[in-house]
Amino acid sequence: MDVILQNFLNLKILGEAAPYLWSGFKMTLLLCMVVVPLGVAGGLAVALASTLKSKWLRWPVVAYVDFFRAFPPLVLLIFIAFGLPFLGLDLPAFAAVALAFLLNTSSYYGEIFRAGIESIPRQQFEAARSTGLNAAQTLAWVIVPQATRNVIPDLISNTLEVAKLTSIASVVALPELLYAARQGQALTYNATPIIAAGIIYVACLWPLVRLLSRFEHRQIALH
Amino acid sequence: MQIAKLVDTFFDVQVMLQYLPKIVEGFFLTIQLALAVVFAGIACGLALALLRVARVKAVNFFIVLFADVLRALPPLVLIFIFYFALPPAGIRMSGFVATWLALALGLAAFAEEIFWAALLAVPKGQWEAARSTGLDFVKALRYVVLPQAVRITVPPLTNRTIAVTKGTALGAAVAVGEILYQAQSAYTFSYNPSTLTLGAIAYLVLFVPVVWFGRWVETRFAWKR
Amino acid sequence: MNDRPPILDVAELRKSFGHLEVLKGVDLQVRPRELVFIIGPSGSGKSTLLRCCNRLEEPTSGSIRVEGMDIMAPGVDINLVRRRIGMVFQSFNLYPHLNVLGNVTLALRKALNKPRAEAEEAGMQALARVGLANKAKAYPNELSGGQQQRVAIARALALEPTIMLFDEPTSALDPELVGSVLAVMREMRESGMTMVVVSHEMRFARSAADRVVFMDQGMILEQGQPEKLFNAPDHARLKQFISSIERH
Lengths: 223, 225, 248
What we know:
The structure holds 3 protein chains of 3 kinds.
Chain A: H1 2-8, H2 11-50, H3 55-70, H4 73-83, H5 93-118, H6 122-130, H7 135-150, H8 152-165, H9 177-188, H10 192-216
Helix pairs in contact in A: 2-5, 2-9, 2-10, 3-5, 4-5, 5-7, 5-8, 6-7, 8-10, 9-10
Chain B: H1 2-10, H2 13-53, H3 57-72, H4 75-85, H5 95-121, H6 124-132, H7 137-166, H8 179-190, H9 194-220
Helix pairs in contact in B: 2-5, 2-7, 2-8, 2-9, 3-5, 4-5, 5-7, 6-7, 7-9, 8-9
Chain C: E1 8-17, E2 20-30, E3 35-39, H1 46-53, E4 61-66, E5 69-70, H2 78-84, E6 85-88, H3 100-110, H4 116-129, H5 145-157, E7 163-167, H6 175-190, E8 194-198, H7 202-208, E9 211-216, E10 219-224, H8 226-231, H9 236-246
Parallel strand pairs in C: 3-8, 3-9, 6-7, 7-8
Antiparallel strand pairs in C: 1-2, 1-4, 4-5, 9-10
Helix pairs in contact in C: 3-4, 3-5, 4-5, 5-6
């Protein structure tokens, strides 16, 4: 028991690592606040583009979505972080991460919004147009609000995944929570900082997980 | 001129050919790792969901706790815990095992929730009809409820499985010799990003068909309820 | 009508859901070859009574005997009992992942462990009885509601039960499909099946039932031959109920 406490929940080490963890936590939070809105906005754009009638405009959108859904996000991130400098584009780590997340998460959010838009009956569109709204106004005020409401659980689920995914930024040395924890662990040769980071992630994301379970289970008694 | 530079930098055929065997090696390791994760994760998730059907309060509490924590925990954090945090406590595992275990547990948590939601979604009348003909609880579950539940789970489980198998790339962070790791070490040796391109191509070859398969499953199993 | 011992003997049956007492001491005997019809307003406990008879609902107290055996006794194999009691549900509850023959033979094969060939022979016989032998390979969603309910009846018949319980078997059907299900039930009655039917099909009750039982607020208020009950009811509640039904 003592050995476990020494190695995994060492309060002295936790005290030493706390400032690093705190600044890492702030970086993770900042990252989430940048990449989630970016991804949602990008996804909405992707979804709207995929509703276009022209085959020649729709096709590249589908290709974009499938391309980035097939790419493991870490691979994309490494490619951007290490590859782009060869093009003379030396992005700071934060920008590289944001770009990788924009490309990856916009295709996921895009698929979700597309499913939402397709779930809206055609008559809604016709009814809105018959009242004199143009196509863009119809999308903005009639279709998208309903579509969004229909896919809220999927949006939350994806946002949870994005928040978890920010931890891969540690691989390109962006000092977010997991990176700070790894630094702390390497300096002290004690697992406490990593365990602490895990606890912080769970504590922050657990409410989202619960919320999702509420959506998923309409309680039906089993016999 | 710009295009020529781009091709030279990212598509240097000579470099690519040189490192192709390494990438192919990583390709097959990625497949092995992914299959091991999928089988262990789905089997464990199904077992937990079935265990939960028995509705033993204490057992269900731990199942829900397991599913909640593993759904909230980023897989890379779990990999680091297994790989870096456990050795001081005397538990050592290879990067491969750490990655496999972390991803499989994560998939198990999601699969458990998906199976459980599907079991709940089978109408109560199906249980009653089966029980009224004298099938016992286990047989009603096995022959009537589970086959219907599994069908409901196919699309979400496929999508989740695809997402988790892409996580095999995280193994690169703990020196598992899969595609990304091979590409990165080739890049370190050659300082030529064509090696990264080669890795990226390997992922596309592997996962584009999988993504298309997922799309097909989604339309094929669109289940009118 | 006959004095053989009852197949189903319910005594002092009570059932509560939380604080709500749905059955307040019900006594009911059903003799061999008898068709007992249970009527009553919704919420009167008819369905609960039926579902207690094979313990799909667990009674709070009282006794239930089937062919003389106390099915509430500890250690009784309820699955064995349920094979002797056929049940037909309002919403059919066919298994959507199995074809018609698969629906009818599942319990034969998995609960009775009959070999496939033997189970399928019994299943085809049961399907022939409800006039659907030609649909054996169809899936439930390819059938009309009336056909689905007849398959559900065949599923119960295939187990050769000694008594059949019908829980509003025609309530979920379009009016033009009701006749085919009632015809099957009439044929079963003529061949001597013991049946308990919860239903609002008053014309069928008049012409086919041996006895009609009126339930209200968890109790049996009145019972007797259909002509007596429908034409000269004793209770005001029953009078009111009959006139409200016949207005439709």
